Amino acid sequence: MPADLPAPLAHAPAPEPVVVAVRDVWKSFGTKTALAGVSLEVRRGEVQVIMGPSGCGKSVLLKHLVALLRPDRGEIWVFDRPLHALPDGEIDALRIRMGVVFQSAALFDSMSVGDNVAFPLRRHRRLTPDAVARRVAELLAMVEMSGTEALPPAALSGGMRKRVGIARALALDPELILYDEPTSGLDPLTARTVDDLILRLRRDLGVTSIVVTHSVDSAFRLADRLAVMEAGRLLASGTPAEIVASGHPFIRQFLDTRATEVKPP
Amino acid sequence: MARRGALTSPVEALGGVILRALAETGRAALMLRAAAGWLLRGRWEFRETVRQINAVGVDSVPIVLITGLFAGMVLAYQTARQLLTYGGAGFVGGLVGLSMAREAAPVFTAITAAGRVGAGIAAELGAMSVTEQTDALRVLAVDPVRYLVVPRLVAAAFAMPGLTMLANVVGSLGGFLVATSVGLSSSTYTLSLQQFLLPYDVLAGLVKATCFGVIIAAVGCFRGLSAVGGADGVGRATTGAVVTAVVLILVVNYFLNLIFF
Asked: Most buried one in A111, A186, B29, B235, CB count within 10 A?
């Protein structure tokens, strides 16, 4: 090694491994192109936010990451496995390592809150009924919903449903959680508590998170790294500071909506 | 090349309808193949199946009792009135029993079930589809065909013969009440019933009922899982499930008649 090599390089931390890699993914529905050559990498432990206006393709991208949709072209690697090329039978093994929080929470109407959270445990873990009940209580406590086991999902508010959805997504100790518009349809205070919960889960559990949102406030509150999408394309990706410094006119216009929201009358 | 926005020709429209119908048939066949795969591997949800047998079978009993009873009564009323005029009293019981066992009980029960059970399945699964609950099942590594479709198919295939048998019994009973009230003796009715109605007729009717049960559940599941949009999509799935099931029941009934009788 040359003697004049700068000393800090020797101590630079190794980058975290890539958990999700999206490479030049294309997807069309009929004549409408939803994704046009999207590429993105998410490293372990990061909160990666994908931000953009409604209909820009961010939820479509999220669905590709759990193989609810398959790309027309391009590659999707999750946990070093080629999700785009795996047969249906092998995808479930990867899905068990991920948690998904849906925009509508997608709680099962026919089950109580407790049964919703217990559902993945009963399907994929060999636990006694007592152990399941204990784990459900623990998960509900984690999202500040203790004591709601017997309630039907219809009795919950939007924010409570999202919290139960998060508890269900956490049931199998996932290494990666995907949030689809976690604060959509919530009032600003409730939205903030859901954001805080996402950050707390990352801090306490170290779980990698990918959050899709159209809320600029949520995006900047949550993101370690931020990607901005428009019309199926990824316009920019980087740290929030890099995105703010971006000179792209669409990004500037999109970020300005936050300033407009808080402008006094 | 056709100009965008121009009126489509009738041939083009017909082609579009045929292509859509073929695509739907293909998707339905894939769903049934997946369901058959789970069944053959013996991996089906016991608890969910029992719950569905209750929903499809037990909850349908009152409405089947009413339709079966009145079907038997109207058959007896029409046949007794005509046959008594020509001295054919000895045929009334047999005619009612045979008509109930071969046609009225399986077909009326199936049409009633298509309205109640098929619509219910399509609405429930449709609501689950449009609120992302079926996607939630997939990402929780649970195949919706295994968890939702197979139990409903099995439940309908088991429950429909039971309901049809019930309709047979109450139909013949209703026929007895009406026939005796228009002047037929009770012994003539029961003797005729015993003479003309063979176990084969009842059994063939029950086999038909099993086929109709599979049609009702399969169509309800397919329409429900294909629902898109919001409440409107669920409504269209429900209506489509009933119409398709009733048409298929009547068409398949004809061909089963050719085979059985």
From this structure: A186
**Residue B221 near residue B38, CB atoms below 8 Å:** no
Asked whether the beta carbons of B75 and B175 are under 8 A apart, the reply is yes
Question: With contacts defined as CB-CB under 8 Å, which chain B residues touch A118?
Answer: none
Strand order in the sheet with A73-78: A32-43, A18-29, A73-78, A81-82
Q: What is the pLDDT of residue A12?
A: 60
B138 CB neighbours in chain A (<8 A) are 66, 68, 95
Instruction: Find the chain B residues whose C-beta atoms sit closer than 8 A to any C-beta of A.
Output: 127-128, 131-133, 135-136, 138-142
Q: How many CB pairs under 8 A join A and B?
A: 43
Residue B257, φ and ψ in degrees, nearest 5 = -60, -40
SS3 assignment, position A38: strand
Q: What one-letter code names the amino acid at B145?
A: V
What pLDDT, in 10s, does the model give residues A3-15? 444 454 455 667 7
The answer to whether A252 and A75 have CB atoms below 8 angstroms apart is: no
Band of the pLDDT at A96, cuts 50, 70, 90? very high
Q: What is the DSSP string of B96-159?
A: HHHHIIIIIHHHHHHHHHIIIIIHHHHHHHHHHHHTTHHHHHHHTT--HIIIIIHHHHHHHHHH
pTM of the model: 0.85
pLDDT tens-digit map of B223-252: 999 999 888 999 999 999 999 999 999 999
For the cut 70, the answer to whether the pLDDT of residue B129 exceeds it is yes
Residue B1, Cβ density class (10 Å: 0-12 exposed, 13-18 middle, ≥19 buried): exposed
- Compute the nearest-CA separation of B140 from chain A (Å): 6
Residues in chain A: 265
Is beta strand A47-51 parallel, antiparallel or unpaired with respect to A208-213?
parallel
CA closest to A104 among chain B residues: B131
Which tokens is B150 given? 């197979």
H helices of B41-88, where?
Answer: 46-56, 61-85
Q: φ, ψ for residue A132 (rounded to 5)?
A: -65, -45
CA distance B141 to chain A (A): 5
Virtual torsion, Cα B117, B121, B127, B128, nearest 10 deg: 150
Q: Is ipTM strictly over 0.95?
A: no
